[in-house]
Give the backbone structure.
Amino acid sequence: MKVAVSIPDDLFESGEQVSKRLGVSRSRLYATALAEYVAKNRGRKVTERLNVIYGAVDSRLPAAVRRLQRKSLSPEPW
């Protein structure tokens, strides 16, 4: 699909340099960049939803359980 977009001149020039250096077309560069941006932000949405779900629940262990966990670990010299 063909689209027309407006971007700042300096960003366009940087894109031109990168596409030449990588040996890919401008279209391929922009499509790849957009795909990476979309994938990154799709994951962000999932993280935001999980933060809402788990942020409402107190997930701390009871003090007695924490003490038992500490006791079960042998001291290790670092």
Remarks:
- Residues 9-72 form one domain.
- Residues 4 and 27 are 11 Å apart (CA to CA).
- Residues 26-55 form the longest helix (30 residues).
- The two ends are 58 Å apart (CA to CA).
